[in-house]
Amino acid sequence: MDEPADSSSSCTLPELVDVDVSAISHERLKDLTGEVLNTVLDKDSVLGDLPNNVTLGEVDLQIAIEHGRAITVYLERFDGIVIPIVVQKNGAKVADLKKSIERKMTLHLKRAGERSTISWRRIWKTYWLSCNGKKIKCNYDSISKYMENNSKLIFVKRFREKNIHDQ
């Protein structure tokens, strides 16, 4: 019963104490740590909703939601997929929201196994974000001016505004 844990099998937290970390490879140690972390997160009532390969930023944002320091907005893509985006409340600007969207979408594509990259510069030049029919144009505006918790965001095609001198 008290056999040392085999480095090729999965470990639980009590078994990990018996593992000689100097005798196993770095990759195996990362795998063991990930397995134990996933087990701990699955049992936690607050963090149990997070995916298995969670990042530190996602954990921090989930804790911020529980403490009321962050809001969740839902971004509806053109293909109908709705993605939750978490943004800190404390004086967050539209630029912070855009960075959160970039991080979340990049992570979403990575987890889905997509190899393509997104040109965010082109996205922001081509589309406005819109919430409740209001186009979000200024990156320096506070997000509280446009949205609250559980608001829905969509992308709206950005048309060139005609100059009065072009007539």
Q: What is the string of helix and strand elements? A: HHHEEHHEEE
**What integer value in Å does the Rg equal?**
22 Å
* Share of residues in strands: 15-25%
Q: How are the strands of the largest sheet arranged?
A: 2-1-5-3-4
- Net shape: elongated
Number of helices: 5
Gap between N and C termini, in Å? 87 Å
List the uncertain runs: 1-9
| Mean pLDDT over the full residue set | 80
Category from helices, strands and their pairing:
alpha+beta
Largest beta-sheet details: 5 strands, mixed
- Assign a percent range to the helix content: 25-40%
**Oligomerization status of the protein chains:** single chain
Number of strand segments: 5
Which helices and strands occur, and which strands form pairs?
Layout lengths: L12 H4 L9 H18 L12 H11 L3 E7 L5 E7 L5 H18 L8 H7 E5 L2 E3 L15 E6 L10
Parallel strand pairs: 1-5
Antiparallel strand pairs: 1-2, 3-4, 3-5
Describe this structure in words.
This protein has helices at 13-16, 26-43, 56-66, 94-111, 120-126; strands at residues 70-76, 82-88, 127-131, 134-136, 152-157. 35% of the residues lie in helices and 17% in strands. The protein contains five helices and five strands; from the N terminus they run H-H-H-E-E-H-H-E-E-E. The protein has 167 residues and is an alpha+beta fold. The protein has a five-stranded mixed beta sheet with strand order 2-1-5-3-4. Residues 1-9 have low confidence and may be disordered. This is SNRNP25 ubiquitin-like domain-containing protein. It comes from Macrosiphum euphorbiae (potato aphid). Residues 71-158 form the SNRNP25 ubiquitin-like domain.
